[in-house]
Write a structure and sequence with these properties.
homodimer; 422 residues; alpha/beta; Aldehyde Dehydrogenase, Chain A, domain 1; Aldehyde Dehydrogenase, Chain A, domain 2
Chain lengths: 422, 422
């Protein structure tokens, strides 16, 4: 029976163990990795009592520290959430293995055979806040992509994280992989987080899962390479040639179906030629769905439900039943508004005009651009990636929903027959 | 007649101009971009007298400041180098345009059509040392990939850089593109370099072209995303199953054909079973080619030309007619040695043993792994990329020689018919 609790040591020592494990995980077969994940799911269910007890201890501590309802909700596990965590592990096991994919291959005039091969990154560092499900989700994706996961969760979820990480470690061991393929840093002091993001030479890729304070700390301190999962100030633009019924369905869905997530609509932009007929209707509809609206003068003159917006409001990611509204004269105005206030996440146009759609797709600079569809589709599952480790709003390495491929690199392999350079 | 000299202002102002230009360059047609590059080549030749005079002024300043021969050589332009700079511009014009490539496309079960489209990065910042050819090479690649180039060269090459950048700006203007597509920061103070790497929100990708001091400054200070072009401590491993004549040709080529570049061999690793016959021969051959060798005890016992190596010597990038030599017991020993001392650039094996080659390819973690070929082939031109902006030794975004694609990002484009999320 392998140890349940990851022994812990200095950050440097944990880093060395993670690197050593990564060398073995990189060479593991797909079957081995899948077995590790399905065994981890079984172990989590077998140990359900212990895992939930550990989580209750974290929740009790948070409650007695006066944490808010949102924090408690993110932290709390129950049977249903544990089951869904296990489903997540099995889903990742069922996804195609990205490692070994030949991304490109060709022969040079001198006979050299060149291939670009998809390979693991090595050690993926995940730094995250009080969400124990990230421990399982992120570790599973790292492992499936042939990496070891070096996890640094927060103090508030430490007991839950230890219990979940132990199941993943034991799953790895039972599949013949090193337990250190999943390694939780149990030292949750703030200074350890800063040291964590400076483990250059150990962490090949850092993925933060958290809010602005965490991102700012990383921009300030990190020396390891990272991929940022940034804000989503997502717009829906209703063009003059929009089907207004479709626009209403898309807007209501994008704003209200799950307002707390990054791909929810935060800003509505309406062409002035349809604003007179459309804005009163959509404002009333959103108002009745509990959405508070603020807008510019033209928008407010058309719908009494719309309050006064400041420039800050147009740039805000509300993550709530709130939205800003702007009226623009034409497509150029819409693109300018989005360029000025958008966060480069997901931007949608509703239109039946092919040229307007083409210009919007070409000229709006964002991770995802949608034509006649809800911004809520910008998600790893919805776009067919199977699972996601986050949604990148940066332009390097990965952009948009990040699935298994975002957790890999590529290596040139050159086969010769003795060629030398002239 | 457009202005020859780029007007200059504060870094923030230059950044804003570069961003504004990037929006237009991103939408430029391939023909426009190609015209801009071929016009720039024509202008450089038309202005040859002025460009070379500007360069002579830089060289004179460097000489009176007592700069070494290498620095002067890198700085100096002549008719041949200017011609080769122009050839480079025409080569980039002849390459396929990466922008607009559909990287992937599929339809989801709900009818959403998803495409991943290759798009420009936006503003690419290049920070570099005294090599005026980088001004033309890097700017051309940025422009062809639909980006604006924000260039920060060093004070030592400022007159040359201004003259070269002016030709590129004027070439852009004569093709109907903004001159600011190529913008040289003329303020060459050290503190400006630090501000440059902190232009977050302006520079979408920073590519440094320089030595360790520059890289360290970037790791310490940069807040913009960057791609590092790191050291190359490249190994050639001679396996027990190597064709020793082939091994000799490859080693001599990899070490001596151009010792000053990052893909030259710096370390030789030999299987003990062939070391007795091979090491005396290759050591004599390298010695006669002027190569100074240092090695471990086993290597030294076999060849009198080999001096004593310290552990530091095995990790060193000599960039000179020097190399380290190690004898290992088997393939595992070779892989361990490379894992311990390599810099993740280019690693070669010489062997006729298929299984040894497969293990080497799989287990050596480097940007490029070569079987029976010289490490000198790890170069954008040799691998068919047409031109390169550097060789990345990092694992995120781009790894190995970076061509035009490394200067692009990818955008999700989702076409629906009114779909909303359930």
């Amino acid at each position: 029976m392998p140890e349940r609790v990851s022994a812990n040591g200095s950050l440097e020592e944990l880093g060395r163990r993670s690197v050593a494990a990564s060398r073995l995980v990189a060479l593991a077969s797909t079957s081995q990795k899948n077995l590790a994940l399905s065994r981890a799911a079984e172990l989590l269910l077998e140990r359900q009592g212990d895992v939930l007890a550990a989580n209750r201890a974290d929740v009790a501590r948070a409650e007695s520290a006066g944490a808010g309802a949102t924090v408690i909700d993110r932290l709390r596990l129950g049977e249903a959430r544990l089951e869904s965590m296990c489903d997540g592990l099995r889903t990742v096991a069922s996804l195609p293995d990205p490692v070994g994919e030949v991304v490109e291959g060709y022969v040079r005039p001198n006979g050299l055979r060149v291939e670009r091969l998809r390979v693991p990154l090595g050690v993926v560092g995940i730094i995250y806040e009080n969400r124990p499900n990230v421990t399982a989700d992120a570790a599973a994706l790292c492992l499936k992509a042939g990496n070891s996961a070096l996890l640094r969760g927060s103090s508030g979820a430490i007991q839950s994280n230890k219990a979940v990480a132990a199941a993943l470690r034991d799953g790895a061991v039972s599949a013949g992989l090193p337990g250190d393929a999943v390694l939780l840093v149990e030292d949750t002091r703030h200074e350890t987080a800063e040291q964590f993001v400076q483990l250059r030479g150990t962490i090949d890729c850092l993925i933060p899962r958290g809010g602005k304070a965490l991102i700012d700390m990383i921009l300030e301190r990190a020396t390891v390479p990272f991929v940022l999962d940034g804000d989503g100030n997502c717009h829906v633009y209703v063009d003059v040639a929009a089907d207004l019924d479709m626009a209403e369905r898309i807007i209501v869905n994008a704003k209200t179906q799950r307002p707390s997530v990054c791909n929810a609509m935060e800003s509505l932009v309406v062409h002035s030629a349809v604003a007179g007929s459309f804005l009163p209707r959509i404002a009333a509809r959103l108002h009745s769905a509990g959405v508070a609206l603020v807008g510019d003068d033209r928008a407010r003159s058309l719908a009494p439900e719309i309050g006064v917006a400041t420039a800050d409001d147009f740039a805000r990611e509300y993550l709530d039943l709130k939205a800003s509204v702007a009226v623009v004269d034409d497509l150029d105005g819409a693109i300018d508004h989005i360029t000025c206030y958008g966060s480069g996440h997901s931007e949608a146009i509703v239109t039946a005009d092919l040229l307007a759609a083409e210009r919007f797709v070409r000229e709006v600079d964002a991770a995802a651009v949608l034509v006649n569809a809800s911004t809520r589709f910008v998600d790893g599952g919805e776009l067919g990636l199977g699972a996601e480790v986050g949604i990148s709003t940066q332009k390097l390495h990965a952009r948009g929903p990040m699935g298994l491929r975002a957790l890999t690199s590529v290596k040139y392999v050159v086969h010769g027959q003795g060629q030398v350079r002239q």
